């Protein structure tokens, strides 16, 4: 457990550390409700660490997207300057509102011509629009991103209509991949499937995508 300085306060965070020294890391955060101990995030962090990828997950309460992005950025800086973990790069990952905050940070960094410490973005249940408000898409940050992006969404997500996300992905400059969890809602629940089963599917997708992108980086 660590406390990460953020303005005049601290963010609670937890490292999941692999047995061998990790060259790449994932920074992971939660959605509008909940915190870093949301079961899907705990499961993903454990899975990544067991496969040799360092994972730092943090809690930032607050429903203002700019505030959440600022907090995410503080965590990126903290890990970048860390003497304990000298990483070559990180992937930013978030669930729901957390993935919007991550996208916002990547857009900011790309506009500042920052170095390539941030390697990619993982969006779990990206909230592309409010329920029943498909006319207003939250795609502004996504269209500016150039690093690889993975979306893992439920095909019945009431905040991310399948055709709309596919349309946004086709307009993005970044290399994108979408993995649909069949019949899952925004909370990734599917009738007739256990939470563990769904988490395993998500974790497998995220890890295999990370592996591909880390390998491409080295070729």
The poorly predicted ranges are none
Overall average residue pLDDT: 94
N-to-C SSE string, H for helix and E for strand: EEEHEHEHEEHEH
Number of structural domains:
1
What is the fourth-level CATH superfamily? Alpha/Beta hydrolase fold, catalytic domain
Radius of gyration: 16 Å
What is the CATH architecture assignment?
3-Layer(aba) Sandwich
Strand content: 15-25%
Number of strands: 8
Task: Kindly report the CATH topology.
Answer: Rossmann fold
Q: Report the structural category.
A: alpha/beta
The number of helical segments is 5
Measured as a percent range, the helix fraction is 25-40%
Brief characterization of the structure:
With 219 residues, the protein is an alpha/beta fold. The chain has helices at 39-50, 65-80, 97-111, 162-171, 195-218, and strands spanning 2-6, 9-16, 24-29, 54-58, 89-95, 118-124, 149-154, 176-181.
